[in-house]
Amino acid sequence: xxSFRTYLSVAAVALAVSLAGCSAAATTSSSTSSGSATSSxxxxxxxxxxxEDTHYDADDLTWDAASEVAVxxxxxGSKVTSSSSTGVAVDGNTVTISAAGTYxxxxxxxxxxxxxxxxxxxxxxxxxxxxxxxxxxGSPLVVxxxxxxxxxxxxGSTNTLTDATTYADQGEDAPNAxxxxxxxxxxxxxxxxxxxxxxxxxxxxxxxxxxxxGKVTVDAVDDGIRGKDYTVxxxxxxxxxxxxxxxxxxxxxxxxxxxxxVSGGALTVNAGDDGVKxxxxxxxxxxxxxxxxxxxxLEAQHIVLSGGSVSVTSNDDGVNASxxxxxxxxAGGAQAGGMGGGGETVGDYTVEVSGGNLTINSQGDGLDxxxxxxxxxxxxxxxxxxxxxxxxxxxxxxxxxxxGTVAAAGSAGMAVTPGTSSTQSGVQLTFNSSVxxxxxxxxxxxxxxxxxxxxxxxxxASLVFSSSAITAGETYTIYxxxxxxxxxxxxxxxxxxxxxxxxxxxxxxxxSQGPGGGGGRR
Length: 522
Hints:
Elements: H1 10-21, H2 50-53, E1 69-73, E2 79-80, E3 88-91, E4 94-97, E5 101-109, E6 113-117, E7 123-134, E8 141-145, E9 148-153, E10 158-162, E11 177-181, E12 184-188, E13 192-197, E14 201-205, E15 208-211, E16 215-220, E17 225-227, E18 230-233, E19 237-242, E20 247-249, E21 259-262, E22 266-271, E23 274-278, E24 281-284, E25 288-293, E26 296-300, E27 302-314, E28 319-321, E29 338-339, E30 345-346, E31 350-362, E32 367-369, E33 372-383, E34 393-395, E35 399-410, E36 426-435, E37 440-444, E38 450-455, E39 460-466, E40 475-480, E41 483-484, E42 489-491, E43 493-494, E44 499-505
Parallel strand pairs: 1-5, 4-6, 5-7, 6-8, 7-9, 7-10, 8-11, 9-12, 10-13, 11-14, 12-15, 13-16, 14-17, 15-18, 16-19, 17-20, 18-21, 19-22, 20-23, 21-24, 22-25, 23-26, 24-27, 25-27, 26-28, 27-31, 28-32, 31-33, 32-34, 33-35
Antiparallel strand pairs: 1-2, 3-4, 29-30, 35-39, 36-39, 37-38, 37-40, 38-42, 40-44, 41-43
């Protein structure tokens, strides 16, 4: 008999910190412009309201060790080792949990399955304490029924789930992931979990999914981590490699569902399709998100960044507000909406950046909204396309800049600039000859002070820059060369040895015609 002790995961502590320190809502407020026929309000999601908006309850991560039911796994010899076996049955290499409770699993099965088939009001807590599960004909861990399933990764433990390359049951509601749940699913605990999705997906919940903590590695043929109603990353470390989308929420039918929140932790993804994707709203309020490889980096109908650090590398668009309930093409058309200043349809799509750091390296459009975009805080750096068929900024409606720092570099053929609703000024630079990657570009005021230095990671033909240091109507001199404190992005530098290119006037923009609003004087 274990002595009494209470388990409290890192996630519960992290959530308490978030509740104390998080006051800004990750919400997309109504956004209107002269070119938009619709306004849009995204799902309001914050760390402070996570227990109201989801099934997650930090109290579920606390329990009495004396109530645990211990199950030892072994090929042909799995058994319940606790004095009480209530709620769990072993039949060959299949272990079935049928009642609420806490079940501690250890050992390995190379040809077996853990099945949860509990009541609709039950909470089933499964502690993985050094478990290796494989199933050559299907999924090794399946939650068929329960109110909520919690997979807890024991401190110091290493756990692995590997499914089959072909499933015997391929029916409509049949499992298609190495960790598959028909119910709300929470993954927590300080241990580690490796998921090998050889058939289709890695981790799937057909309801809500909360990743509260842990060190989780997923390698999947198709999607890596997929929730339906919502997918939440509260804390932990996640490394996802996926042939399809890496992390997503995909409920397309229920109002207010299909949203995704990253409020903490570290997420790194390599995706064959989209990096992080939501049908409705994708919100990032904290943590670190690195999309190392993708077709499109971040994609949702509404994209909200209010904190954290995000780095996106994409073969197509870096950040793309599209899809969702307003169907549109990649070029920006929408079924419902008005016409933007560039003649493109403006749909119910938004990108809002109010805080955090966003760095984009895209071959297609850098920051792309098939509706409107607003930047009111944080830092946005775009190393955009080198071809004139795409732009560093591509906004069908209006790009409104009221704060923060924006440095968007790329080709000159489709340059989009801040619109007339912007209250923060900026400068637009179009170079007579391309500026090579790694070259510092300096913006210098009339007193000779370097206001800002930008270092591109690509060869560029244009740069749109806006910050509180730029004063509307003032003249700035542009230099290239010299030195910079950092090797890339917005930094400080010196014009010693630099070449003077010419001058620009803040707030005077020339819109290279293509999708997007902008132009005018600010």
